[in-house]
Fold:
Amino acid sequence: MSEQKRRPSGIRKRLRGAVLCVGIVLLAACLAPTPDSSGPTAPLPTATPYPIPVLPTRPSPTPRPTSTPRPTRQPTPPWPTPLPTPTPASPLRPNMQVATFFFYWYDCPAHNCDPAQAYAVPPGWSEPLEGDRRPGDGLYYSSLNRDWYLQELRDMQLAGIGIVLPVSWGEHPTPWFRTGVLQALVEANRLLDTPLRIGLFDDTSSEVGEYNDYLDNGLFDGSRYLEGDANLNLSDPVSGFLFYDRKIKPFFQTIPPEMWATHDGRPVEEGGRPLIVVYSTGRISHLESAGALWAGIKAAFQRDFHDRNGRPITPWLVLETTWFTGDSLAGLPPIDEVADGRFAWGAALNGPKWHSLHGTYTVASVGPGFDNRKAGWVQTKLEQPRHRTPDGQEGDPGTFLRWSLSQIPPQTNLLLVETWNELWEGTNVCRAAFPPIGGQAVPEDEYLNLLREALLGQSLWWAARPLPPSWPERLAPQRTYRLSLALQNTGTRTWSEAGGEHLTLGGTLFPAGQEIRPSRPVRPGQVGLFTIVLETPQQAGVYTFTWQMEGPAGPFGPPAHWGIEVGPLPLTPTLQARIPAGAISPGQTLTLTVEVSPAIAFAEVHLQLRFDPAFLYLAEAQMLPGRTVRRWNVSVDNERGWARLEAWQEAGEAMREIVRLRWRALAPGTGGFWVEGGELWTQDGAAMALPDLWVPLVIE
Structure:
């Protein structure tokens, strides 16, 4: 094969693990197993749920004296509601399952994540994932991070992929790349409304490594795992132990049966057979024993795994085409009588391939292109440009993948996408910051959208929800203001400069219109802040301001409008926030002070806070610092991002400081919090309504 398969850079060193002695009887156990009626030899692991926070009980509100007048709030304009999202699409080929090779050998930022050697860099590579529920645990784009799996699984569903094939190296010397870490994948999959199905991709590089490790001293201690030069001898009884006991059996004990991918999508109780896809025979010898090896593995699987009705389960074996040689076809039994399917690795480099074994089960492979030129340890540099077909026709960055998908035969039963996230060889279709391709900027979700169009006949969609601005309703004439507009991405496309999404301004304040592009990607579910510079006109009056998101397909999301009066400013109290200087990092605690301006003597104050609970955590609120408080009430709900603050005091001299808020930053990104519903009462009962305040924050 011309495509080079190599080990991840961060795990190429010699490592010594725990010592495991293997007796000769145990080594041979898999090669000729004897079925019996026993179930799995080890109990299936169960998920460990995250602890649920205990919320404080919200006290009943204290009755207000009937003599205290309520302030009169200015009416706010009706706010636009989000447009409905498209109905979920059905597969264009209902009888074809789509799977992708998923590499979990990354443990960023600590291991195997050098951006200088990656073709494309995904979110979370060098900073915490946005939306990570535990951003302070030091796990970003990592096989140890459940939120990373959840992000990738959701994107696979958006792309129309129903089966994930973790690229397994079994009990690898490095702890973040062993079978056991896939428990986090299982937990993340349970959080989906419709979980994906999980099959096994057996990367035979690991069996070769373990064979050399064992030959060195009879132990699996990492001494020769990546440095031995011996070929794996299939006639050696240890080979069955390496394939089955060290990899296949533990994998299917980790993945619960209800999540198993099967050859036809049916549960095992209805005849579905769990899917095992096996990599090539590079550095594997004595292929005349291949049929006996895999027949023994199937029999061992039947012995150890049964469905809920007690019937033995037979796996569905899809072998890479290099397993089918003259020696293996002449072996006893012949390899084509043992295998259930056949596929070709290398579609990302060489173009689409498909095979029909026994004329009934067709497996096809496609990929987006190939580029390993940045991987420093690879000696043979290869490239298949993503914007060019093999015959030289050039187009957009999806040309090669789109052409490949158009070639697969209509009778395909299983389509393999090569790959989801092999970043060193540049075959990934996952969300990532791609280099320019064919002179064109590439949106990070380009290939998710391409796959969705090809597989489901429906594009990813744009949607936006404008959030009410916290501006004053009156501005001074001939002044320059920097104002922020907040919009939530309620669609499935990322807003970015590469994608062409932008905010369009209009109205009498922007008669010529203006476009503002996002300063950083705004992914689905996130809130983007767009900063505008507004110069108010000289003439007093009421002016209008409109804004709406726009993308390559035109405007999206409801348009928003706001009326602003320009004229001399009356002396009315407003809210301000004092923010500490310096950068804010995830896990850092920061104290902000909310003040009223100008200083005023008041007896009672009420405020409400609203914030993103994935972005900030409110640890403490100190009402009226330095003053004698007669009574106060602080109710906080950090799970829903809400707080109510109230305090009563003896009115005295005028004061500015209302509350000190101690926050803990949770995740990187651009966000903040609202201070709204503010009300002040003076000692004589006069009431004042305070304008809402948006306090922007950047955590990096």
About this structure: The domain at 91-456 is CATH 3.20.20 (TIM Barrel).
